[in-house]
Amino acid sequence: MTPDRADRAAGLVETRRALAAGEVTSRALVEEALGRIEAAQPTLNAFRIVRGEAALAEADAADRELAAGVSKPLLGVPVAVKDDMDVAGEPTAFGCPGAFPPVAADGEAVRRLRAAGAVIVGKTNTCELGQWPFTEGPAFGETRNPWDTGHTPGGSSGGSAAAVAAGLVPAALGSDGAGSVRIPASWTRLIGIKPQRGRISTWPWGESFHGITVNGTLARTVADAALLLDAASGNHDRDPHRPPALTVADAVGRDPGRLRVALSLKPPFTAVPVRLDPEIRARVVELAEKLAELGHAVEEADPPYGQIGLTFVPRATAGIAERVREAPDPALLDPRTREAARLGRLLGGAPLRAARRAEAVLQRRIGAFFGSYDVVLAPTTAVPPPRIGAFSRLGGLATDRAIIAACPYAWPWNVLGWPGVNVPAGFAGPGLPVGAQLLGPAHSEPLLVSLAAQLEAELRWHERWPPLRADADRPVA
To answer: What is its EC number (predicted)?
Structure first.
């Protein structure tokens, strides 16, 4: 089914082409996006803030530039950003309740999107401080999966994923501190790129959550996700991580060559029992078989993760403690957030320093694995998208155990700071999307994007949409 333009957003590449050719105006596209958002909000609840008047004014300015022959990578294209990113004149609540003041300036990633000509139509929902792989909370309610509204789209970039999967916007920025781009991309059938640390600035946080969190992109196609990545990439003058510049979109359509692919189905040690859902295992193995058909050498092998989890917890919880200190009323926060902040205050000294020192050791050990393999193929999650409310009544420890069991595969690459790309792997159960990760060593975004695009050309996953009605229960072909 090919939707009408007003029903679902065309892709980023196509939207840019149509605008440059004068086939449509930015104002018309933004009006349509705002209409879709308004219609879907009661059901999907993807947005925390909708910038109606401001976005239309920015669209009118873009149309004047287009008429004058100005060329920019995303001139006039409507996109969304996650509500952990500063947009001038809007609050940055990061999923939290309370009266957050408007910020004075754009964060660096948003500044670069604007410099590329993009129109920011709104800020998307995320769970409190991005801690969990679901997007629910007392500040905004439940964000729902457009493939089945009884289930979560994942998190913490669940609002961005729901908005893109439903066709409300062509693409969106999210952030990924333990899989928070890749997990919702998996559960909503999207491409989710977690880039190299520093590729997209997290400024005004030089190191978000002590370096484990990066900004990334969500889109329906590899080309769209790569285009948004290039537009948002770059550094603030005070960023501590400044990887060499890359133009990732150039890798789309490029032959990746014959690659050595490690199929890794075993999660790193977590001290929590983990069971990979048999249907997800089958879908990931099918992707491995497709890679073999394409000429790649595929064999089962697991990176030498060791006790990498010991280095993750201090960085994550110390980051939560820092963010809680900035909340206008911490008493309003979820008790699980306050509990994590207390732990973070305990771990924020010597344990945090030890965790940071261990990173170089882990990079060398796991980097040696890439002497034998070019890419790791792994499940993105261990289970399909859970039902809405599945975690809402759990205490802190029970929540941690449940989310580790559901999502044990993504977070090691946050410790390492290296790139990963979620690709759709098919469906599990009653039409629930699941995904797989392509993981690489430092600065490997072009290789991963080239391989993802090769798979996309074969499997055509972007041609299947969720139900056209936002309140429908099951996907249609």
So the answer is: 3.5.1.4
Which residue, 387, 317, 401, is CA-closest to 352?
317
pLDDT in tens, 363-385: 999 999 999 999 999 999 999 99
Cβ neighbours for 291, distance < 8 A, ≥ 6 positions apart? 259, 261, 298, 377, 451, 455
| CA–CA gap between residue 404 and residue 399 (Å, rounded) | 8
pLDDT attached to residue 429: 81
**By C-alpha distance, which of 261, 190, 253 is closest to 424?**
190
For 334, half-sphere exposure in the C-beta direction (CA atoms, 13 angstrom radius) is 26
Which residue in 156, 160, 186, 444 is the catalytic one?
Answer: 156
In the residue annotation, 82 being an active-site residue is answered as yes
Percentage of residues in the chain with pLDDT exceeding 90?
Answer: 95
Q: How far is CA 399 from the centre of its chain?
A: 21
pLDDT attached to residue 55 = 98
Instruction: Determine which one of 26, 72, 82, 264 is catalytic.
Output: 82
- Report the predicted TM-score, pTM, of the whole model to 2 decimal places: 0.96
Instruction: Determine if the peptide bond prior to 372 is cis (ω within 30°).
Output: no
90 Cβ neighbours under 8 A, 6+ residues apart:
49, 51, 102, 103, 123
- Which is the catalytic residue, given 175, 180, 201, 444? 180
Is 156 among the residues known to form the active site? yes
Mean pLDDT of the chain: 95
pLDDT, mean of residues 244-249: 96
pLDDT(98) > 60:
yes
Q: Which amino acid is at 78?
A: P
CA distances for 402 relative to 129, 201, 417, angstroms: 18, 31, 25
Answer whether 66's CB lies under 8 Å from 57's CB: no
